[in-house]
Specification:
Chain A is an alpha/beta fold. Chain A has 13 helices and 8 strands. In chain C, 73% of the residues are buried. Bound molecules: thiamine diphosphate (2 copies) and magnesium ion (2 copies).
Amino acid sequence: METVAKFDISYSQSLNVSAQLNISLEQLAARGINHEDLIEFYRTMLLVRIFDTKAIALQRTGRIGTYASCLGQEAISTAIGNTMAAEDVFIPGYRDAATLILRGTKMEELLLYWGGDSRGMNFSINTQDLPYNVPIASQCCHSIGIGYAFKLRQQPRVAVVVCGDGGTSEGDFYESLNAAGTWNLPIVFVVINNQWAISVPRSKQSGCKTLAQKAIAGGFKGEQVDGNDIIGCHLKLQQAIDSARAGNGPHLIEAICYRLGDHTTADDASRYRDAAELEQAWKEEPVARLKTFLVENQLITEQQLESIQQQCSEAVEASVEKYLATETEAVSSIFEHMYQEMPAGLRQQLAQLETQ
Amino acid sequence: METVAKFDISYSQSLNVSAQLNISLEQLAARGINHEDLIEFYRTMLLVRIFDTKAIALQRTGRIGTYASCLGQEAISTAIGNTMAAEDVFIPGYRDAATLILRGTKMEELLLYWGGDSRGMNFSINTQDLPYNVPIASQCCHSIGIGYAFKLRQQPRVAVVVCGDGGTSEGDFYESLNAAGTWNLPIVFVVINNQWAISVPRSKQSGCKTLAQKAIAGGFKGEQVDGNDIIGCHLKLQQAIDSARAGNGPHLIEAICYRLGDHTTADDASRYRDAAELEQAWKEEPVARLKTFLVENQLITEQQLESIQQQCSEAVEASVEKYLATETEAVSSIFEHMYQEMPAGLRQQLAQLETQ
Amino acid sequence: MPEMTLIEAVNAAMSYEMGVDESVVVLGEDVGTNGGVFRATDNLQQQYGEMRVFDTPLAESLICGMSVGLAAQGLKPVAEIQFMGFIYAAFDQIICHASRMRNRTRGRLTCPMVLRAPYGGGIHAPEHHSESTEAIFAHVPGIRVVIPSSPARAYGLLLAAIRDPDPVVFLEPKRIYRAQSEMVADDGQALPLDVCFTLRQGSDITLISWGAMLLETMQAADALAERGIDAEVIDLATIKPIDKATILQSVEKTGRCVIVSEAAKSGGVAAEISAIIAEEGLTTLLAPIVRVSGHDTVMPMFKLEQKYMPSVAQIVTAVSKVMEF
Amino acid sequence: MPEMTLIEAVNAAMSYEMGVDESVVVLGEDVGTNGGVFRATDNLQQQYGEMRVFDTPLAESLICGMSVGLAAQGLKPVAEIQFMGFIYAAFDQIICHASRMRNRTRGRLTCPMVLRAPYGGGIHAPEHHSESTEAIFAHVPGIRVVIPSSPARAYGLLLAAIRDPDPVVFLEPKRIYRAQSEMVADDGQALPLDVCFTLRQGSDITLISWGAMLLETMQAADALAERGIDAEVIDLATIKPIDKATILQSVEKTGRCVIVSEAAKSGGVAAEISAIIAEEGLTTLLAPIVRVSGHDTVMPMFKLEQKYMPSVAQIVTAVSKVMEF
Ligand SMILES: Cc1ncc(C[n+]2csc(CCOP(=O)(O)OP(=O)(O)O)c2C)c(N)n1
Ligand SMILES: Cc1ncc(C[n+]2csc(CCOP(=O)(O)OP(=O)(O)O)c2C)c(N)n1
Ligand SMILES: [Mg+2]
Ligand SMILES: [Mg+2]
């Protein structure tokens, strides 16, 4: 018996639960993260947290539909948005407000979507990013086509695709890992392991010790990062994206975090989830952690904190106003965009509907 | 950065390319393989080889349809059949004549199937085994239900499911690995890596160094074995099956062999495959290897060899005769077995057909 | 005799059958502790244990494919697909395996499984949560497709589906999961899987529908009655195999037929009904067969979904035109 | 002008378009060195290189899903599914993504892809290799479904499919891949994707068919002519969206219609055609609309497949009955 292959999975963290950073600020700056960046990280995470809170309130008052908040995932989602280049393509799931906002999607576009209006996915800035994706893990296959297109055209671009811990059980996830490995494509897979797939805990989703090891089945490297640590997430993602851009192929990052909210506004997590577990998770969450770090190290002033809070609230409110002021699309829009040109049969159905 | 998981993949072999056995016959006997077993191994492999040759001839003369021979896979297929217990369940692909024959399927049943008659899958002996399976890797999901049933009923039974190197790229393969690991089911996955999926070589199927490492994504052990070495295959399978039966969960074995023939009788491998590669593969093939070992170690006589050859040929011929003597089913059989009771609509369609 | 909503009836049927038949197992995403996202499997795990009622990993092909394996071992899996919009990944296992196992083995192995899924629109759900593609399943030989439209029928049809020796796709109209309650004797009585239910006798026109659209169809029948039009209303219920006899008899009596369905129009189940009448009942027809249905479009996001779903007014208009023909 | 079989025409169309449009890429299982198991992609890799013509891992959902991604990046993927029996694993990507990308993004991203697959029975193939489930795709809003029935139409329709800005499922009747040759000017001329082809003018009855069954349908028309029955034969060709006008006009002229298809009868495309006539052309009908089709059974293994496929005799009998009605 002879050993023919060996693999190992690593876990990394930069800013720990006690808000201690394990590298110096100078080293951090050398790796591209400056003081202002840290403040911007905080601003984005806070913005999204305020946006999430607002969106849930809008749902409760019937002004949008079911909403999937990213409470607890702000760090990894922000890190993705910050490390991607404009010309890269982001392939989201449905819990990625932070990343989309950083990519250019307007908050009113997000609200339109959750408000049941597909104009929300007609992104005006990040026009090549894929829309939100609901059928779990199916987006992974799209990332393969996008990564292949980059390779075919010899463009130094990267596709970043996310899915959840639950998503790693789907065939599409794995078919994509295998294809990415086969063609050595410039794709970064980010598994946002928030410990739950609706009511199914991570332990019942897979017998694997880590989800990062799924990458081994694709023939490339996977690793874990503390998903509540925005600095660690940023550094790891930057590495992975740079490496993919340089032609070194795909990479998988499992970001370990926690879904602090219900699955969506249609869910009641107290049915299946321990209060103690949730309480513990709140102690590890990313926004407070970064804030503590910034405050403890005098990197931010009380005044700055306040003004950021206010700017974020105003931005969210402004987007809500724009959303609420948007008129519902005409009935004809149902028939438009089915095909580039509306076929005769659809024209007939539309005419019938409009005369009724 | 801390290492949180480590894996390795091993390769094992007992009878090497030069027909040298790396364990003594006494040790072998202690592990359950006696002199007579070795001769039986040879008999089964030879039987299947003769059956394959005959089946191809029957196809060429229009007496059966497309046929997928298992030329080159006799060792691993025989080992599966020999190590499974009668009460276990086998979940085949379409290239598993040796295993099925050992499970009790009659050769005339196999010919019926390839002759376009579904009565061939109405196994008279191994009544719980699944029929041949054509949609690649879909059978893996069935094995999960079967393994789950064993576990639910606390039966010490094992499901053994096979697929090819190509099959490891399908989502169903992986969804099954993950489920088997999650529930710790008594399932042995055997990947028969014959290096080709029709015209697609192993190297273009996956960027993985080994296919055995796919098991890591399921959270359990995978290993490689020389698939041309029936003794090594037998020992490894026995271990895996015993372990699964004892409640230790699933196992994946990648059996490395070579598809010596065309993909099926409808294929022409010379379009895409190097003659030199094929020539080399013939030097490593399992039947000659075991024969050489038996002869060189005086474990078989010339006379025994001849009589085995003759017995096998006769058995094959007898099955062919039975097959050819089988009358085609009545037209009504198309409508039967669609449902337990034939619905009114089908009765009407059948009546219509019979009056025409 | 308890009052039950449709979803409670679904739950009661599973609970009843698990109690009397040890071979019934329930599986799917979130069916265990959570009792299903709609609570269809509420309390089943507490009653029958974690082995018989279990959450699967998030993988629909697995759910269906492992059910085929469970059934081959003599169990009776009742699997939930969380929404019909996520059933497609399981389609390969349905059409290649569940529907064919009996046929392929000449009856040696069978596939007594049920695949339940909430279906249909009208609840302001996100994308992919409002599908009504029953026609796709109704074209697959070897399976049954059943859609209940009331608590009592949900109870009786689901029991029948679980007991049926062949695979059944059981689609639950989620818009009416909690729309009405009725008395359902939880007595284990199944309903037949091969006949339509005539919900209302009438002589002027036959209205055929299924699932949640029967709500609007019955309301339309009431409105039509006020105008002196006496509509017969048929709940198709068993979409596959279809009960041609009831349909043809009704149309023979009324001479007119309007079919109401929320599915996309082209190639829907309504087309099959229409074709049956055009083939076997043409001479009884006094007017064209009209389909009031969804459009040949994607179900729009929910702001516009009401413009997609057939309305009572549309049914009444269509019937009026047919009557005036 | 070269003589081509249908499969050669398919090959020529892809080769032509790859030559004039750099954005066209060809992918699938065995499409590279091997040129496809039917040789549809023969020589394309040699002509256009390994990046534009490439073998994928054995994964149909991937093939379709990555095509969606390729298309979103402005490429025009022409993907092969080796047999229609293996397309089902890709169905989720077709119905959830390919068909909706334009709609979901209000036209921002589109999906100009072609999914080619050999389809249909009659070649003595193994299980799962003789499927004709085009109806399932014809029910999906947002895609086109196209089936050619001659070399020239295969060439022109495939060119049109590749150039079309929306997703097209292109089903190739493999039974007639090599049945006939005809002159095809390899000149890049596409055919329209929204009209049927009237292959034969006639006044007594309209026969509608598509794919390989047109062979038997045309033979039946010849046989009927000898009996003095003048049949019009329509090649449906574009299954989705369907060309209602040509069908309705023909039936208005003839008053009779028989639809010939090898698919399972219930819920097939024939049902939709029948429903269209029953809805919009009923008054023109002189007799019931009859479907001559496969049965509501699994396609039997090949020993009996001829008993499954409609025969010339069956078509003639059906027409005779309709004429005598
Ligand atoms: C194919 C598919 N199956 C089922 C669902 C229903 N569903 C929505 S979210 C979800 C759980 C997803 O869990 P995970 O992947 O961990 O993502 P998270 O919601 O935690 O971000 C399920 C089962 C779906 N959207 N798509
Ligand atoms: C789902 C599916 N896709 C495609 C095919 C067509 N096909 C038949 S065999 C084969 C290659 C299989 O290769 P592998 O899994 O290595 O098995 P082998 O034939 O080498 O035993 C393909 C693509 C199929 N049968 N099923
Ligand atoms: Mg999760
Ligand atoms: Mg192989």
